[in-house]
Design a protein that fits this description.
Blueprint (H helix, E strand, L loop, with lengths): L2 H13 L12 H10 L5 H14 L3 H6 L2 H8 L6 H16 L8 H5 L6 H12 L8 H10 L9 H14 L6 H15 L17 H4 L17 E10 L5 E5 L10 E2 L2 E2 L4 H9 L1 E9 L3 E4 L4 E14 L1 H5 L3 E4 L11 H14 L1
Length: about 350
């Protein structure tokens, strides 16, 4: 076995994380949920979400039979909601097409919604001890520094090089579980993005970036792009009972499938209320403090405009994609964090 792998395994035996909730009873289902949650999310943030998720959906059958609303409700605040929608899609596929059992073939696993090569390999390595290679963000950083690999790790030619290096280090199935967790742990706890703890690293003597005193240069950062700003309005429609209209957003796009304030870029807000919701508003409006939120690809500045409802027609009352929410009552399932913050503020004001 190569010295890098040997040193890493020895380090993991003494310093690795062994008490994470998904490390207990390592079924494919439990590992899968954790791997999806840990995409774009730190471990400490993911843990409480994972525990709540497992409490509500302990197995693939319960998840496949659940409503998307109930899944999104447990995901609210974790961000990147496409992950939750893909969890649901994959659960249904596994339940209906694979009799509730995850496929053991890595290519079949990759074909499932939201599961890429590295995630598929991690699931099968942890749950079935298959000797498959992973290359998540932590591993990319470790290997890019170890071999001083130039270029942005997500660039195809750079990623291909990192895959080749990762495959060369991947051990046989006898050690695959410990090795897979060890290399992720090394990136997460020692070879961190900023201020890496090189003095604690078991392979620093082999690390090209450390030897050249260039750890800050690797991996190369992604090309910076100025995030565009999207400006929009949120309709804060309040009826005679003090209830606020919430609308279920489309399944695709930001906050897909969640309950939010109606959004519009149309400056003629009363016309929008009438044509889209069958609601006639009073002339009086109130402009609230803009909601500012940064997504991965753009910045959102949304100005809530409060309108008092004068009357509604039958269409507004029968529309299943809208609900009237009383601010003093618990929020409906699945509300984006910025909207939840605004509604809770309104609830406190109404007391």
């Amino acid at each position: 076995m190569q010295s890098f792998t040997q040193k890493l395994l020895a380090w993991y035996k003494k310093n690795g994380r062994t008490d994470l909730p998904w490390q207990k009873n390592k079924t494919a289902y439990r590992v899968w949920v954790s791997e999806i949650m840990l995409q774009q999310t730190q471990v400490k943030t993911a843990i409480p979400y994972y525990l709540r998720f497992m409490e509500n959906f302990p197995n693939i059958e319960t998840l496949a039979k659940a409503s998307l609303d109930s899944i999104l409700a447990l995901w609210a605040g974790l961000g990147y909601y496409t992950r939750a929608r893909n969890l649901y899609k994959t659960a249904v596929i596994i339940q209906t097409e694979y009799n509730g059992k995850f496929p053991s073939d890595v290519n079949q696993m990759i074909a499932l919604p939201g599961i890429g090569r590295s995630t598929a390999s991690a699931i099968l390595a942890f749950s079935e001890k298959q000797a498959l290679t992973i290359l998540d963000g932590n591993v990319k950083r470790v290997l890019a520094r170890l071999h001083a690999v130039a270029g942005w790790p997500s660039k195809p030619n750079v990623e291909k090089q990192l895959w080749q290096i990762a495959e060369a280090y991947t051990p046989t199935s006898r050690y695959i579980v410990d090795y897979t967790q060890a290399i992720m742990d090394l990136g997460a706890t020692v070879c961190t993005r900023s201020s890496p703890k090189c003095s604690e690293c078991p392979v620093s003597d082999e690390c090209a970036a450390f030897i050249k005193n260039e750890t800050a240069l690797y991996p190369n950062k992604s090309p910076k792009k100025a995030l565009p700003t999207k400006r929009t309005f949120f309709l804060l429609l309040k009826n005679q009972k003090g209830e606020i209209l919430l609308e279920k957003r489309p399944e695709t796009g930001i906050w897909g499938g969640l309950w939010s304030l109606p959004e519009t870029t149309n400056p003629d807000l009363p016309f929008q209320c009438l044509t889209h919701y069958g609601i006639i508003t009073k002339n009086k409006t109130q402009i609230l403090e803009p909601i500012k939120h940064t997504f991965s690809h753009f910045k959102l500045i949304a100005t809530p405009v409060e309108h008092l409802v004068k009357s509604t027609n039958a269409r507004a009352m029968s529309n299943t994609s809208i609900v009237w929410h009383n601010p003093i009552h618990p929020l409906p399932k699945g509300v984006p964090a910025p909207i939840k913050k605004l509604l809770l503020h309104l609830a406190r004001e109404s007391l």
